[in-house]
Amino acid sequence: MNIQISNIAKLPTKYGKFKIKAYKQENQEHLAIMSEDFETLDSPYIRIHSECLTGDTLGSLKCDCQNQLDLSLKFISLNGGLVIYHRQEGRNIGLVNKVNAYALQDLGRNTIEANLELGFKEDERDYSIVKYIFEDLGIKKLKLITNNPKKIEYVESLGINIVERIPAITKSNKYNEGYISTKKEQMGHMF
Ligand SMILES: Nc1nc2c(ncn2[C@@H]2O[C@H](COP(=O)(O)OP(=O)(O)OP(=O)(O)O)[C@@H](O)[C@H]2O)c(=O)[nH]1
Ligand SMILES: [Zn+2]
Fold this sequence. Notes:
- It is a single chain.
- By secondary structure, the protein is an alpha/beta fold.
- It is built from eight helices and eight strands; from the N terminus they run βββββααβααααβαβα.
- Strands 1, 2, 3, 4, 5, 6, 7 and 8 form an eight-stranded mixed sheet that branches.
- Strand 2 (9-13) and strand 3 form a beta hairpin.
- This is GTP cyclohydrolase-2.
């Protein structure tokens, strides 16, 4: 695996002070966002957050992404740990395809049906960069912030001990209720 890595730089934010390190794998650039005390932690809190430009940046109400990112950065700034900003937009179908999926959702498809209709699996994400980042940062055990059973399965398959799971549940709204109930009922998410 050919990965380009950056040096570590300071990143003060409205949530608190972090340190960041970037990783480039093929055409995707990812970020490790660490609390200042990260190296001293025995089992850090970790959030693997997949990119959602419409939610994270534009504040879209169609999903829970921005709220989850906000919750994670606040929590990790206070309690110590790492957010991996995993640049796999739209569960890794990319922005053009995600917007096409949204257009199908405007016609009544749910988040899974729209992906399938476009010829994708419900989730096309690849977590190999997460494995690389865990090795690079020396992570052997952690507390994972997620509702997604696939992320838990993946992290455990790396031989990493998840000592605790912290739910990433945020307030829903009338635009994301359907999305959240599809995640719960058809993707096994723990809400
Ligand atoms: N294809 C597609 N992707 C979506 C849609 N809504 C959100 N996404 C993407 O779904 C991903 C959400 O990722 P995460 O925040 O890691 O959340 P998750 O896999 O649901 O798991 P947890 O939040 O950890 O429980 C992001 O890549 C979003 O861009 C959608 O309707 N269609
Ligand atoms: Zn989103």
